[in-house]
Amino acid sequence: MNHRKTFQPLLLAAAIVIAAGSAFAATQAPSTETKAGPGRHMPRIDSNGDGVIDKAEAAAHPRLAEKFDTLDKNRDGKLDASERPSRMGRGHGDRMEHAVRLDTDGDGRISRAEAAAQPHLDERFAEIDSNRDGYLVRSELRASSEKRRAERKAQHQQQFEQEFKGADRNADGKLSRAEVESNMPRLAESFNFLDEDRDGQLTRQDLEHSGRHR
Asked: pTM score, two decimals?
């Protein structure tokens, strides 16, 4: 028997197995990003993946930073899972599961009687039921959710503009540290993190990119 000819295919097979294992491991490696949509990613709040959120990580999300001290019940400078806002991490999957639970008869629709179990949905039933057939289906619920999201975004944008103009006392289109400390004190602690170019000023773009007005 030619052992050399037999040994070569074994080496090739081993190399394939090792390569496949490496590829699988790469797909399972922890990531500092979470999927935000097709082709887009957004940074995780817990950027170092240690299971808690410290003040530096929260500073990149000003609305969370503003509430940090209130949420930090044990005053250890970190937010663990029990201290985080209950709405963090909720997405379309959670809303879909909730809709499925309301569909008690399992027919793929939510009737007026089934919607009564959720007061907020019951109140808006007629508005969501776009075809007026007395049932809510997935596409109607999704359309309503997107509409409300757009309305909230417009409201937040308007509020942001009002807050920015109110704080921008010299109307130069920028907020100095003094203007932030005097007129937007809850944002003052995050000033250095938001001022990435270190020019001592915060522009609308600095705050928009941080999600401050959302």
From this structure: 0.45
